[in-house]
Amino acid sequence: MTEAISVSEAAPRPREALAVVRSYWELSKPTITRMVLITTGLGVIAAPGSVSFTDLISTVVGTGLVVAGANALNMFLERDSDAFMSRTKARPLPSGRMQPDEALTFGVVVSILGLGLLSQFVSMLAVGLAAFALLSYVLVYTPLKRVSSLALYVGAVPGALPPAIGYTAVTGSFDRVAACLFLLLLVWQIPHFLAITLFRHEEYARAGLRVLPVERGVPHTKKATVVWAGILLLTTLLPVALGLGSTTYLVIAIASGLSFTAYAARCLFTDDTRVARKLFFGSMPHLVLVMAALVVSVV
Question: What b/e sequence results for 214-231 when a residue is b if at least 16 CB atoms lie within 10 Å of its CB, and e otherwise?
């Protein structure tokens, strides 16, 4: 009877086990990973020819695992600065729900699993791009955030690779379609991230992260956000110039891009942080709409 009680007490409770699973899930940054799954899948669909279900699933899942691992390693490296920001202080590491070595192990193992899955089912070019994205995000972008606001532009490169990974996983080549998908996501990230720094710049400063408002001030960042929104609009027109985008895509790109740029311009005339917040969240459906329209026009 005594042994039975001790075994029962030693077994993890369902709620505790669920909390552990939730903590590991949070390490993957599910919102970011979900966006990566969508853009990777769009890259696969955009590839010429028929795509097998196995290719689609292995590419999307493999890339998702690599990104989830990279996000966990990012949290491991930024566990101290995360404690100073309201949106990150409840994460598993700064909140004390998980130990650093657990996050490190999870990040490494999941990243390796993702790369292993890709290497078994897709082209080696896609594997190489995924490995580059992982290493540059963790070893270059993450530490650079404490040094210079230029980290944003460096981090945009690995952040823009998922659709290119999806495309090259099928084709084995990086052509103009892959380049357009890459450039679209690359440029989109800049006004998207600048928007969040506008309404959280004080928290970034407390955390010791060198974002643009901390280095150059809020007025400069507002102007930069509008400029990059305009550059994003021009970038969405590049496929048309290259003969890839249809008339429908052109209409969608112009309409959505002008709306996004116009809303970004509102930041210049107000100190209401809700405008920047809405711009940040509104940038995500803008990206999905334009990228999906581009994929439909090239398949």
Answer: beeebeebbebbbebbbe
pTM of model > 0.85: yes
Q: Which residues of the chain have pLDDT under 50?
A: 1-8
The residue to which tokens 């009680």 are assigned: 5
Quick one: which H or E segment has residue 101? helix 100-121
Scored b (16 or more CB within 10 A) or e, 87-109 reads ebeebbbbeeebeeebbeebbee
CA dist., res. 236 & res. 176, Å (int): 13
Q: Which two tokens stand for residue 131?
A: 């490995």
The residue ranges of DSSP E strands in the chain, in sequence order, are: none
First-residue to last-residue Cα distance in the chain? 67
Token pair recorded at residue 29: 């940054």
Instruction: Name which of 69, 58, 178 is nearest 119 in CA terms.
Output: 58
Cα(111)–Cα(117) distance, integer angstroms: 10
